[in-house]
Design a protein that fits this description.
Number of strands: 11
Largest sheet: 5 strands, parallel
Helix content: under 10%
Distance between the termini: 20 Å
Structural class: mainly beta
Strand order of the largest sheet: 1-3-5-8-11
Order of helices and strands: EEEEEEEEEEE
Number of domains: 1
Strand content: 35-45%
Length: 85
């Protein structure tokens, strides 16, 4: 995603490729909403409206905000030179 809009990904996703988020907001409400591939966060906001545990490996390459009304647990390998707020 490369935009300033909000995109909501709900339900389980069987996608096995990687997901890159650049700007905007991605709202997730499932542990597998982003599939099983590596998630690259370059900027923007990752939000959850229900408690979510992501098993994906996560690369943080920019200033990224975790938000929403519920907790997001990052349970995969976390790497990169960016920051989380």
């Amino acid at each position: 995603m490369n935009d300033t809009a909000t995109v909501t990904l709900s339900g389980d996703n069987t996608f096995t490729g990687g997901t890159t988020i650049v700007d905007g907001t991605v709202m997730i409400d499932s542990d597998s909403a982003l599939g099983t591939g590596t998630v690259t966060l370059e900027s923007g906001t990752l939000e959850a409206d229900t408690t979510v545990t992501l098993g994906n490996d996560v690369i943080i390459d920019g200033n990224v905000t975790l938000g929403g009304t519920s907790d997001i647990t990052l349970d995969g390998t976390i790497s990169g030179t960016g920051s989380l707020t």
